[in-house]
Amino acid sequence: MHMIYKELLLFFVATFLLFPGFSQEGKHGSISGIIKDAKTKWPLIEAVITVNSNAFEGQKFAVTDTSGKYKINNLPAGVYSVSFEMEGYEKYVQNSITLKEGMSVAVSYEMLKEQKRSRKNKLQVACYK
Question: What is the pLDDT along the chain (129 residues), one digit of tens a residue?
């Protein structure tokens, strides 16, 4: 009878060591949301979301789907900066988003269209000899 318990215990220990996803369950979180046009309230498709944090090196990216939704998984606990970008719209950055272990945070945004520049603000470069 004790042999069966030892074998089961060994099986579970081996499973947790060989498959780290099981042993780390609940430690990582996610950031998700919906991106829309501020005027029409329609979802924006293929908007780019970038997250930065001191909790990991580099950046992580997501692109919104046909419903304007995005989700970035497997994020360690830390303080995050999330930026939203799409051609024809003003870039927006949301700083100081705190993500705790196993937590999911929703960060949605309604993007504003870029303002058309008047001729007065238009940059012109000319070269003369």
Answer: 545 544 544 444 444 444 444 444 558 999 999 999 999 999 999 999 999 999 999 999 999 999 999 999 999 999 999 999 999 999 999 999 999 999 999 999 999 999 875 544 444 444 444
**Exposed (0-12), middle (13-18) or buried (19+): which is 77, by Cβ within 10 Å?**
middle
- Give the H/E segment covering residue 35: strand 29-37
Which domains, from first to last, does the chain contain? 27-114 (2.60.40.1120)
In angstroms, the CA 57 to CA 99 distance is 16
Given 3-state DSSP classes, what are the helix, strand and coil percentages for the chain, each rounded to the nearest 5? 20, 40, 40
In a 3-state reduction of DSSP, which class is residue 100? coil
CA 15 – CA 65 distance, rounded (Å): 35
Q: Are 64 and 43 in contact (CB under 8 A)?
A: yes
Half-sphere exposure at residue 52, Cβ-oriented, CA atoms within 13 angstroms: 8
